[in-house]
Amino acid sequence: MKSESEESFVKQLKANQNIVHKICRLYTSDQDSHNDLFQEITIQLWKAYPQFRGDSKFTTWAYRVGLNTAITLYRKKKRSIETTPFDTEFHRIKTDEYNYEEEEQLKLMYKAISELNDIDKALIFLYLEDNDYTEISETLGISEVNARVKMNRIKGKLKKILNP
């Protein structure tokens, strides 16, 4: 029999699991790594759930736990042996409406974002998810003004990377 807390957590996670998937896509380059990171973030969310007081939205809290978990694992991974990423070209889903040009632009954008540092990646991710600066600052634990300044600097970095 599930406890009320467990049912609440499962319901919230099911409703917001795309947040975790997006974080995983940002910090991984193949499906196995994505699955591993998804599992690790889910475990960390579950461990931290008893301390979730509801002061912020579940999504804001989940972003914070998820990004912190991804950043921690990413930093640990940098100290380990590097493997060759699997080419995502083999995983394209063919449909009549598939836009290859848009896919190529997304690949370029993700490649440019991958060159940013961990905090900048998290900030651009939250920005692209249409979070306002208040939510971004709460999630990352920085001031709203700092979030805006960092975002402007990140935009400049991305322009330089994409248009050398």
UniProtKB/TrEMBL annotation:
Pfam families: Sigma70_r2, Sigma70_r4_2. GO terms for molecular function: DNA binding; sigma factor activity. Coiled coil: none annotated. Keywords: Sigma factor, Transcription, Transcription regulation. It comes from the Bacteria. Residues 14-79 form the RNA polymerase sigma-70 region domain. Transmembrane segments: none annotated. Residues 108-158 form the RNA polymerase sigma factor 70 region 4 type domain. One of its GO terms (biological process) is DNA-templated transcription initiation. Belongs to the sigma-70 factor family. ECF subfamily. PANTHER family: RNA POLYMERASE ECF-TYPE SIGMA FACTO (PTHR43133), RNA POLYMERASE ECF-TYPE SIGMA FACTOR (PTHR43133:SF45). This is RNA polymerase sigma-70 factor, ECF subfamily.
